[in-house]
Amino acid sequence: MNKKKRQYPKCLLLLATCFVTFAASAQDDEVAKAQHTILGQNSAQVGVSVPIRNTHPDAQWFPQDGFGLFIHFGLATVHGGIDLSWSMLANKSWEDGEITPNAYWKLADRWNPVNFNAEEIVTKAKKAGFKYIVFTTKHHDGYTMWPSKYSALGVKQKLNGRDLVREFTDACHKNGIKVGLYYSPPDWLFDAQYKNWDYSGKKILDMDHKEINRLPEKPAGHDQARREMVANQMRELLTQYGKIDLFWFDGGSGEISNDEVRKLQPGIVINRRNGEPGDYGDSEGTLPTKRFTGWFETCDPCWPSRWWTYSTSDRMDTGADVIEKLVILRAWGGNLLANIGPCADGSLPKEALEAWDEIEKWMKHSGESVYDVTGGSFPEKANQPTTIKKDIVYIHAFPNFHKTIVLKEIQSSPKQAILLRTGETIPFSYAEGEIHIQVSPEKRSRMVDTIKLTW
Questions:
Q1: What is the pLDDT averaged over residues 324-330?
Q2: 7: how many CB neighbours lie within 10 A of its CB?
Q3: CB atoms within 10 A of CB 109
Q4: How far apart are alpha carbons 352 and 357 in whole angstroms?
Q5: Burial 374-391 (b: 16+ CB within 10 A, else e)
Q6: Which of 171, 325, 340, 407 could form a disulfide with 435 if both were Cys (CB 3.0 to 4.6 A apart)?
Q7: Among candidates 355, 379, 204, 225, which has minimal Cα distance to 291?
Q8: Which residues, at least 6 apart from 286, have a Cβ–Cβ distance to it below 8 Å?
Q9: How far, in Å, CA of 321 to CA of 12, rounded?
Q10: What is the C-alpha separation between 60 and 263, in angstroms, rounded?
Q11: pLDDT (tens digit, 9 = 90+) per residue, 226-242?
């Protein structure tokens, strides 16, 4: 995973083109491209649109559920000032703490997430409205979160075999939450001796960030051995934990084919970061800037706001921040995968729980507008994001928007407009194919206000 590219503003600004945009720097775009290149993901793989590929009935939940939780959990959380795996690279061009690979892996001796309670996390996530959860089973650092037979470092070696993946999947199955597994085929531990740990490439650094003249040559069969290890680890994940609804690759080159994945889990949804076509398009750390086709998901750091793993100092998103991102994506039929990094002991940051409470309250009155819906006509024919469910249109008014809401090319006048947060009827006008709605300031809130139009 890459670092988040920038912070979203609290209130979205509506431009003259009626399109919501977010600030992003060219330098940050280059960081994302660089990291994707390291992981073997070219621009064609990490793009915007992709046709639907898995037509299995069990896979059709993906565009309907719309709201997922990403959990990045691992060794880096012990430190509190570095991100997962990427912090091992010296002389990076982006913001992150720095640690030598050897010092990073020694964090495993100190890591003991005694307060990781998968049941509690999943039940709280469900209350907040998350429909699926993706859990990091192994990041690029090579630490396996299940007692794999094919791993040199992981819970088998350091946590007395405690199976964190089992705890997670069991909790999801028990609570009716879709199960997603993140897995990184690149394994920097396996390749540690043969990898230059200097990101800039201006010199060659070993695992202690000491400069050396050259890297040792890989022994014969090394790369094939890694491919076999990856394939075997994936088969463990796909056969030992019951039904898996989504597999989230982060790199790789077809070490195990999508065809084999589907034989093991026929109804599974697969992303497209393993060198093979997947089921949906994606963006990372930034919302798409144009309408996409097919299924789509944006994964975005939220708790903390810019890193994937827990940070002692980075800001955390509010519930309002997350809802704003969610409704933009749902207005185009896409999903939001909001990331959280649990603390070193396995507990959740208090700021995240506060945000989840805020999201839960919003979902109680407006959740119907983001689940099992299709995208509306924003921004071409609506100046605020809209979603559609049969003969219902939902309008999402952002907190900073106080102009007249306009929907164009509407065939007939709706019967009523209801402000979902309060249940009260909102006045509107209809003429010449346009609906105009002006919500008075005293009826507005500091979160997205949803108006339900019925015919």
A1: 97
A2: 15
A3: 10
A4: 9
A5: ebbbbbebbbbbbbbeee
A6: 407
A7: 379
A8: 5, 6, 22, 24, 298, 300
A9: 10
A10: 17
A11: 999 999 999 999 999 99
> In this structure, which amino acid lies at residue 432?
E
Please give the model's pTM, rounded to 2 decimal places. Answer: 0.92
For the chain, give the secondary structure using H, E and C: CCCCCCCCCCCCCECCCCCECCCCCHHHHHHHHHHHHHCCCCCCCCCCCCCCCCCCHHHCCHHHHCEEEEECCCHHHHCCCCCCCHHHCECCCCCCCCCCHHHHHHHHHCCCCCCCCHHHHHHHHHHHCCCEEEEEEECCCCCECCCCCCCCCEHHHHCCCCCHHHHHHHHHHHHCCEEEEEECCCCCCCCHHHCCCECCCCCCECCCCCECCCCCCCCCCHHHHHHHHHHHHHHHHHHCCCCCCEEEECCCCCCCCHHHHHHHCCCCEECCCCCCCCCCEEEECCCCCCCCCCCEEEEEEEECCCCCCCCCCCCCCCHHHHHHHHHHHHCCCCEEEEEECCCCCCCCCHHHHHHHHHHHHHHHHHHHHCCCCEECCCCCCECCCEEEECCEEEEEECCCCCCCEEECCCCCCCCEEEECCCCEECCEEEECCEEEECCCHHHCCCCCEEEEEEC
> To 10 degrees, the CA torsion angle through 122, 6, 195, 188?
0
Q: Provide the 10 A C-beta neighbour count for residue 26.
A: 6
Determine contact, residues 299/35, Cβ cutoff 8 Å: no
Q: In sequence order, what are the residues at sequence separation of 6 or more whose Cβ sits closer than 8 angstroms to the Cβ of residue 234?
A: 183, 255, 256, 261
Which residue has tokens 């034989």? Answer: 263
Q: Which one, of 145, 182, 172, lies nearest residue 161 by Cα? A: 145
Compute, in degrees rounded to 10, the torsion defined by CA atoms 166, 169, 175, 180. 160
* Out of 86-95, 344-353, 389-398, 431-440, least confident range: 86-95
Chain position carrying tokens 């007692």 = 147
pLDDT per residue over 43-63, tens digit each? Answer: 444 445 666 678 999 999 999
CA atoms within 13 A on the CB side of 354: 9
Task: Please compute, for residue 447, the number of CA atoms within 13 A of its CA located in the half-sphere on the CB side.
Answer: 22
Cβ–Cβ < 8 Å for 181, 247: yes
The residue to which tokens 């903390």 are assigned: 304
